[in-house]
Design brief:
With 145 residues, the protein is mainly alpha-helical.
Length: 145
C-alpha cells in the first residue's frame, strides 16, 4: 500500500527535480546549439549543474527533517549524483549511438530512469533519518553545518 506521505514527498522531489532538469537541459541546449560542445560533453556539464541545484533544493524542501549535516548529505548526494551521471551517460550513449535516437528524446528517457533511481537512493540513504543506538530517529544529533 502506498503511503500518502511518500506520494507527497515524491511529488516534491519531482518539482525540485524539474528545476534541476531545466538547468540541465538549458546547459545542454546552449552548449550543443552554439556548437560549444558535443552532445555527451554538454549533457555531462548540464547534469553537474542540475545536481548542484537539486541538492540545495532537496535538502531544504523535500528531505529537511533528515537531521543530516550539509556536509554529510552533500557527500552522499554527490555519490548518488555520480552514479546518476554514469547511468545518464550510458543511456544517452546507447540511445544516441546504438539506436540513433534524437538527442532530446534520448535525454527525456534518460532523465526518467535517473529520476526514479535517484529518488529511491536519496530517500533511503542520502537523506534518511539518523538512527540512534535504539534504532529510532535521533533528533538530538549534533549537526555540522
Amino acid at each position: 500500500m502506498v503511503r500518502t506521505g511518500n506520494v507527497i514527498q515524491l511529488l516534491k522531489y519531482a518539482v525540485v527535480g524539474l528545476a534541476g532538469t531545466l538547468c540541465h537541459y538549458l546547459v545542454l541546449l546552449v552548449l550543443v546549439e552554439l556548437n560549444l560542445a558535443g552532445v555527451l560533453a554538454a549533457t555531462s556539464c548540464g547534469f553537474v549543474v542540475g545536481a548542484l541545484v537539486n541538492h540545495g533544493l532537496n535538502r531544504q524542501f523535500v528531505f529537511a527533517a533528515s537531521g543530516r549535516s550539509y556536509r554529510e548529505s552533500g557527500l552522499r548526494f554527490m555519490v548518488i549524483a555520480v552514479l546518476g551521471f554514469l547511468l545518464n551517460f550510458v543511456i544517452m550513449g546507447a540511445l544516441l549511438h546504438g539506436l540513433g535516437v534524437n538527442y532530446l528524446i534520448a535525454q527525456v528517457v534518460a532523465t526518467g530512469v535517473v529520476f526514479m533511481v535517484s529518488f529511491t537512493a536519496n530517500k533511503s540513504w542520502t537523506f534518511s533519518a539518523i538512527r540512534g543506538k535504539n534504532g529510532k530517529a535521533d533528533d538530538n544529533r549534533s549537526r555540522i553545518q
